[in-house]
Specification:
The chain has 415 residues and is of the alpha+beta class. The chain is built from eleven helices and 17 strands. α1 runs parallel beside α7, α3 packs parallel to α6 and α9 crosses α11. It is globular and about 50 Å long.
Length: 415
């Protein structure tokens, strides 16, 4: 793809600081000059951790609500690791489950700080894995840029220090990690995740039963791959979070829009090496426009900041694209998918938003938080080749619906 990082003019109406614009370009220039962009490829994996004993239930949830399917399972020193694949091939998903209910690492320590994360203290989106042609050279470059990585003895989770991977420490701004691997993700054994084991016949039967529900409902053929993933951060850390991610990836800042009704902004970053974002999903950061302590003067909505205060900085949702089209039942495909999932007991936060009539448009909806990963699932249909990731009206409606479901009652305050 012919794309010039240094001359691209990002879109949107969210005003960025001079600091952001200066260092955005400096980061691009350094990535190109040091060879990082030439080393990095697409996002080849995403990692989600669940509580001990929750992995099978979470896999069943994914079998019904997503295109991901079980491929292999391994047991490391500390975790069961389940490899899942989708029709889009990449990114793979690694669902990791501590072997012991008493397992504790930085995930649990972070989650225990936040009131609505404590119920599932080991549940968290961990981060994404990028393919690199040379893991050691990637480490050398990024460490010279003050990026820190996990090495043996630094962490309780053995996955982060396996030979196939290079995992960063959690970001101070997002609590997410970024990892790199030069291993062959088509060969799961080459990842050296641990001792391979098989799911029992009963476990596979439960997964297949969920898949059969989706097939009978006619929804699974309409679900494609991961479209984007959205992390929520604090208002004052929006620019730092974006610049940090640009430093550690080969993505570019596509643009940002202010969602005035919800006192927040949506900030999109994309991989310019792919024609289809499902080959390397967009990374979105959302943040309040005003921090909570200042917003008390303005009394504006602040569901994004409240989410961070209640759950911590973390991934908020993973969005799957629904094939665009008119379903034979007389509705758009996304309306059909959501309707069928609803009859199968999947709870949603509100109705599908967006029109999708004769002009390019977007239809979207949020599920409720997963009981196992705490992630929201979004479904999105781009109608008539709509370009972009959202409309302001859609985002305002989705943010409001999520905010109503993510409130925390403490003392005499409800936020």
């Amino acid at each position: 793809m012919n794309f010039d990082l240094l001359t691209y003019k990002h879109v949107g109406d969210k005003k960025n600081s001079e600091f952001f614009e200066e260092y955005r370009l400096k980061i691009y220039e350094r990535r190109l000059s040091c060879g990082l962009d030439q080393l990095l490829g697409t996002m080849c994996g995403i990692v989600v951790q669940v509580e001990t004993g929750d992995a099978q239930a979470y896999l069943q949830e994914l079998y019904l609500m997503s295109p991901y399917r079980f491929a292999a399972a391994y047991r490391s020193e500390t975790h069961n690791i389940y490899v899942l694949i989708s029709a889009a091939r990449f990114p793979r998903m690694l669902v990791i489950e501590p072997l012991s209910a008493g397992f504790e690492d930085d995930v649990k320590r972070l989650n225990m700080v936040y009131p609505l994360a404590r119920a599932k203290p080991n549940a968290r989106y961990i981060g994404e894995i990028f393919h690199t042609s040379d893991k050691q050279e990637t480490a050398k470059i990024l460490e010279s840029h003050n990026v820190r990585f996990e090495y043996p003895g630094d962490t309780e989770n053995s996955l982060y220090t396996l030979d196939a991977f290079l995992f960063s420490i959690p970001s101070d701004f997002t609590y997410n990690r970024v990892a790199y691997s030069d291993a062959d993700f088509e060969d799961y054994d080459a990842l050296q995740l641990g001792s391979r084991f098989e799911l029992s016949a009963a476990q596979m039967a439960k997964l297949e039963a969920q898949a059969e529900l989706g097939r009978q409902a006619g929804i699974h053929d309409l679900l494609t791959g991961v479209d984007h993933m959205a992390t929520r951060v604090l208002a004052g850390e929006r620019e730092d979070a974006i610049l940090e991610f640009l430093t550690m990836s080969n993505y570019y800042f596509w643009g940002a829009y202010s969602i005035q009704e919800m006192n927040s902004s949506t900030n999109v970053n994309r991989n310019h090496n792919v024609l289809d974002d499902k080959e390397s999903p967009a990374k979105v950061f959302t943040a309040n426009n005003t921090p909570s302590f200042v917003n008390s003067f303005e009394n504006l909505p602040m569901p994004t900041e409240d989410f961070v205060r209640n759950y911590g900085r973390r991934m908020h949702h993973i969005a799957y694209e629904v094939t665009d089209g008119d379903h034979p039942s007389g509705v758009k495909n996304v309306d059909y998918v959501v309707g069928e999932l609803g009859t199968l007991g999947v709870p949603f936060l509100a109705h599908v938003v967006g029109e999708c009539k004769d002009d390019p448009d977007l239809k979207q909806i949020f599920s409720k938080h997963s009981k196992y990963s705490l992630l929201i699932t979004e479904y999105v249909e781009r109608c008539h080749k709509f370009k972009g990731f959202f409309t302001k009206q859609n985002v305002a409606s989705l943010t409001a619906a999520a905010g109503n479901d993510e409130r925390y009652d403490h003392g005499h305050v409800f936020d």
